[in-house]
Amino acid sequence: MNALPPAHRLRVAILGGGFSGAALAWHLARANRPEVLSISVIEPRPALGGGLAYSSEEPSHRVNVPAIRMSMAPEDPQHFARWLAGSGEMERDPDALWKNGDVFPRRRVFGRYVAAHLAPWLDSGAVRHVEAQATRVIRETDGAGWTVQTSAGPVAADIVVLAATHPLPAIPSPLASLVEAPGFIADPYAPSALAGIEPEASVLIVGSGLTSADMVAELDRRGHRGRILVLSRRGLRSRGHPAVRGEPFGDFASVPATTALALLKTIRATLAAARDAGLNWQSVFDQLRLQGPVLWAALSPPERARLVRQLRVFWDVHRFRIAPQVAAVLDRRQTDGTFDTIAARLVASNDEGESLAASFQRRGQTRIETARFDAVINTTGPAHAQALQSNPALQSLAEAGLIKVDAYGLGIETSLESRAVGRDGRASAGLFVAGPLARGTFGELMGLPEVARHAELVAAEVAKLLDAVPLDKATNVNAASH
Description:
This protein is an alpha/beta fold.
């Protein structure tokens, strides 16, 4: 079959080339013929697939789940593990193999795996990497297409998919006075962000999740031996992996809870049953993760909001575990007395020139304490609720009324078909959301297996448009399917 003229190909523009965007491009390219589908991935980084999560060159930053559970292809759980075994990466990083036989490679290695599988499609021209920053998205006046303005010029599209990376952490208001201070690190994943911290420096880390653990591990690798204090509202540290990995345990989906309280009671009962059976709690949370979409769908919007408000922090520290290599660093530093985590509320801060002062109130106490540090690192987690303000392309869509923040402050409101929902409550036929920014609709969309499945789902929705629209009408897909 002769290739169709470019104007007759369905043009898909994917904004963001991290794992979500790269996986979506891969699924689209594999399932559709290049003569009828044109895929452009708009990503400023020089390589696709890494994004914020998997482009770090820091050796201590490791994937936080075993390699055997990571895959671009949901139907093939061993996809990454097989690539890893033949890549030579294990010989270069023997510490990736943990005592129980699980493998936790460096994050950049997973990014290379994604890039390696997308490379043939880039070489063939089925996928095009637009190495630029998307700055604005404009819907054509006739509703028949889109123009994505980028730092390298415009990209025309029939379908736009928002697969933006995680936004940077928001700066808590009590730390606003430190923004210009040399010792304040607002973006912990910026290249060499920690390079200026001296070995004996005292460090305050605000936030106690995965990023916080990464910072401790990186500081330790760089030879830091000073005092590290981690502060968060509840003082909960991300949990680790079991010595022996088990199968998912429990049943939350047969009769899903319809309230946050009922779900909490079911989880507690299942944890007790797991203990009685000699099983670890991680197996229960693995089942919760697998059945998460069913659980989320069973809750009414008010109950979803209650779950996010009251239980999300507990879910996060149990669901998103740290690699055992990282956990070992934290445990050693805690034993040495150079690392501690406290539950406290930040009250104020001040740049005193020689040091950075932070005032906080410990949980359950009334007294305000003030301590001084050489460096303060902000690891409060991605500010998903602010994604529409911090990303210029998303901001342009929000100002046009084509997207809005979801009801739970987790990302972008989407339909069950992953289409973006606008200010008027209607879903845009040619505007999709892929990855974590869609989790207000789908629930658990932060873990890699869930993101991979969602990328496959969005690819299938786009393919439906390709099947439904005659090829000579492809460029009018938005109008035809509205």
